[in-house]
Amino acid sequence: MGLKDKYAIVGVGYTPQGRVPGRTALSFYVEACANAIKDAGLGRQDIDGLICYRHFQPASGEREVTPYVVAQQLGLAPKYLSQEANCARSQLHHALGVLEAGLCNYVVVAYADNALSSDRIPDETNPENSVFGQFGYPASYAMAARRAMHTFHTGPETWKMIAVGQRQWASLNPLAMMRDRPLTFENYYSSKWVVEPFRVSDCCLVSDGGRAYIVTSVERARDLSHQPAVIIGIGQHNPSSYIDQSTYMAGPTGAKIAGEMALKMAGINLEDIDACEIYDCFTYTVEVTLQDYGFFGLGEGQDWFKYGTITPGGRLPVNTSGGLLSEAYFMGLTPLTEAAMQLMGRCGDRQLGAKTNTKEPEIILCSDNGATLQTHSCTILRRF
Amino acid sequence: MAYEKPLPQPNADTRPFWDGCKEHQLRFQKCRDCGHVRWPPSIICPRCYSSEVEWMVASGEGKVYTFVVYHYAYHKAFENDLPYITAIVELEEGPHILTNIVGCSSDEVRCDMPVKVAWEDVTEEFSLPKFKPAQND
Ligand SMILES: [Zn+2]
Q1: Mean pLDDT across chain B, nearest whole number?
Q2: How far are the Cα atoms of A66, A103, A210 from residue A98, in angstroms, in the given order?
Q3: Which residue has the higher pLDDT, A65 or A379?
Q4: Which domains occur in chain A, in start order?
Q5: CA B94 to centroid of ligand 1, rounded, Å
């Protein structure tokens, strides 16, 4: 049974997002955390755990955003604080760990950045790769996608349905960066190469802003502002090899084992899932993740995505905020917080259920992956 | 004209590899206990944890595991190469290495295409192992 039904997401903090010049990354962290604390109906005296992202190189003229400075500015002196490397995939697991250990009662988890408006030198440069002109994550994931095109039936014909489907969800989300930028299959093919086989429409956004959420026990959640989004299953798997040596770029990725673990803990099957919020750094990531979870067989995505399966009105909505491709990039917090908001019934025009001609959401599956498919986590939430 | 692209930055682990490249040899660590040929270099064998190691010279033959095509240069020094191909080559001896495919157009390159090493002497100090289609000789 593991942690099934013991803990829940009880509050979500947003900030202005998109292109928001003139703000430090720190300011977005502080605003997102404070909004999440208030959203849950809590005060700073309640918060005893703080988990922030391992931050990128700061923009020039800014100090490094450490969890210490975020805590200081929030007036917190928590009993647990993420001191070093930590990403959205492990953030939730750390939070659950310190709650389960009894170290904390209410943990705030956050990611924020001013990535779009600030000047910074990319910190991912790898001398061994740049020698050959290989730069950045789009190229690494494009290598995975190319191998997949060779291994099973996939390519732009499949990916365009993911890009267009998510853009339709974004059109219903007032916060989505691409809300007013409709995407058609024709637009998809005319968008520029980032690095072939990926076009601009295959790649996630770069965003200013932040996102935070609060985790606590289901018992404590009863007294708070919203219907909690209850965690019923988690799983993590880290195949770890860098893309240069990876032999799983066409799957199975970490999604296979992480998904099996989460479903087993939840005691459910894929048929019980009403919607998915999938970490979508690239369109291909969505395809391979759903494939590895078992929603369709190898190379069957091209048929599975047809006829609006994942769009408003579809039978398995995916990335209902627009996702990282069309809403905003806040690491794995974009998918996870959207799932929580949907289960709380707070999603306005994009709310799953009658409003979007979709199933009333009881159970939503979320994914997160990192580096180049080197790490994966799966989280399953249910309505209270 | 001076070479303006990034150059390798050998460290204590990778220097023997780049020293080998200078002599047009692809040198890899081979475990003396289990025979596993590894890349990148490591203090122990990832399969059996043995630290007994020798450096072997690979044949320079392999096949394209995967590749991408750059139509835009993210570093100014690569502008004149556009479109250019970066690839991961699976060597006959096992290791996968990141490289460029040269001597064929971006329309011709395919996964699993046989390739062989094509050395490019870029500076006094460095030679880069690039790969070209095996039938181009
Ligand atoms: Zn060995």
Answers
A1: 95
A2: 20, 5, 23
A3: A379
A4: 7-118+207-221 (3.40.47.10), 135-203+226-383 (3.40.47.10)
A5: 14
pLDDT (tens digit per residue) in B81-130: 999 999 999 999 999 999 999 999 999 999 999 999 999 999 999 999 99
Measured between beta carbons, which residues in chain A are less than 8 angstroms from residue B102? Answer: none
* Cβ–Cβ gap B96/A134 under 8 Å: no
Give the span between the Cα atoms of A163 and A184, in whole angstroms.
Answer: 9
ipTM: 0.96
Whole-structure pTM over 0.90, yes or no?
yes
Centroid of ligand 1 to alpha carbon of B38 (angstroms): 9
Tell me if B9 and A127 make a contact (CB, 8 A cut-off): yes
- Give how far B86 is from chain A: nearest CA, Å: 7
CA B115 to each of CA A152, B59, B102, B104: distance values in angstroms, whole numbers, following the listed order: 23, 11, 10, 11
A204 phi and psi, to 5 degrees? -70, 165
Among the listed ranges A113-117, A148-152, A181-185, A311-315, which one has the minimum average pLDDT value?
A113-117
Interface of B with A in 55-94 (CB under 8 A): 65-75, 78, 81, 83-84, 86, 88
